[in-house]
Amino acid sequence: MNIDPSRAKWFKSTRSSMGKDCVEVAFLAQGMVGVRDSKNPTSPALVFAPGDWDAFTSAVRVDEFTRPA
């Protein structure tokens, strides 16, 4: 599958500070989700299938990625 994220509308979280150290997300064709580093918007984006993105965001919501002490 070839998804072109170059014309996507990228956005940052509403919880993001106004700085440039953010992750940006875009909803792409066929339900795919793009993720990129806001400091380097011309670098390649990661592209996730809808189910993979849903699993990731669900895990974030339940704090599954807490760093070990």
Tags for this model:
alpha+beta; 69 residues; three-stranded antiparallel β-sheet; 19% strand
Task: Describe the protein in words.
The protein is of the alpha+beta class and 69 residues long. The N and C termini lie far apart (40 Å). The chain has a 3-stranded antiparallel sheet. It is globular and about 40 Å long. The longest helix has 12 residues, at 50-61. The chain has a domain at 22-69. The protein has one helix at 50-61, and strands at residues 23-27, 33-37, 46-48.
Topology:
Elements: E1 23-27, E2 33-37, E3 46-48, H1 50-61
Antiparallel strand pairs: 1-2, 2-3
Largest sheet: 3 strands, antiparallel
Topology order in helix (H) and strand (E) letters: EEEH
Residue-averaged pLDDT: 86
Strand line-up of the largest beta sheet: 1-2-3
Contiguous runs where pLDDT drops below 50 for at least 5 residues: none
Q: What is the number of helices?
A: 1
Structural class: alpha+beta
> In angstroms, what separates the terminal alpha carbons?
40 Å
Counting DSSP E segments of at least 2 residues, the number of strands comes to: 3
Helix content percent band:
10-25%
Could you tell me the radius of gyration in angstroms? 13 Å
What proportion of the residues form beta strands (DSSP E)?
Answer: 15-25%
Coarse morphology = globular
Task: Summarize this structure briefly.
The chain has 69 residues and is an alpha+beta fold. It is 17% helix and 19% strand.
